[in-house]
Amino acid sequence: MISAEDPIFESLEGCYGNYNPIPRLKKLEENSDNDELRTEILDEFLDNLYHQGSVYLVSFLTIPLLIRIALKYKFFDARIIYLVGMVEIARKEDDFQIPQKYLADYENEIRNIMLLAYLNKDWDYDFTLVTTKTIAAVNGQIKFANSII
Q1: Cα 57 from chain centre
Q2: pLDDT given at position 105
Q3: Is the residue at 84 inside a domain?
Q4: Distance CA 96, CA 128 (A)
Q5: Count of domains in the chain?
Q6: C-alpha distances in angstroms, 91 versus 27, 32, 88, 117?
Q7: Model pTM greater than 0.70?
Q8: 88 found inside a domain
Q9: Host domain of residue 37
Q10: Is the dihedral of CA 79, 80, 83, 89 positive or negative?
Q11: With helix as H, strand as E and coil as C, how does the chain read?
Q12: Using CA atoms, how far apart are residues 68 and 53, in angstroms rounded to an integer?
């Protein structure tokens, strides 16, 4: 299981250089009822983990931790689902190689995004589009995922 205690987080790069998401993940968890802060942190993750189609090792190590927090606190935020889908599409299109040490955990944990979506009882049009795209991407259906706006 990918752990927030893994020392690799100290040396990871995001789109703007060195980026350690662990302090922000902890802040998100400590302030789970603060919608404004959640929005700020999720926007930051979108900027740093998936930027103009680029992804980084930090993207693949952060997403499982983010999904665990979202499930624990029932964050039904389409941005989390969107981030998972877009990172997974970029991984497949760019043939990004996740180190073997993390690959199985990553692939198992991103499937939990389907549980997060299922637990949301308020599926509006946009949430449905994002979720369908992400589920397709997580299941390797990249052409189909890309056909969804």
Answers
A1: 12
A2: 94
A3: yes
A4: 27
A5: 1
A6: 27, 29, 5, 21
A7: yes
A8: yes
A9: 7-147
A10: negative
A11: CCCCCCHHHHHCEECCEECCCHHHHHHHHHCCCCHHHHHHHHHHHHHHHEECCEECHHHHHHHHHHHHHHHHHCCCCHHHHHHHHHHHHHHHHHCCCCCHHHHHHHHHHHCHHHHHHHHCCCCCHHHHHHHHHHHHHHCCCHHHHHHCC
A12: 24
Q: Does residue 91 form part of some domain?
A: yes
Q: According to the model, what pLDDT value does residue 83 have?
A: 96
CA 14 to mean position of chain CA atoms: 14
Cα–Cα distance measured from residue 116 to residue 131, given in angstroms and rounded to the nearest whole number: 10
C-beta neighbour count of 94 within 10 angstroms: 11
pLDDT under 50: residue ranges of the chain: none
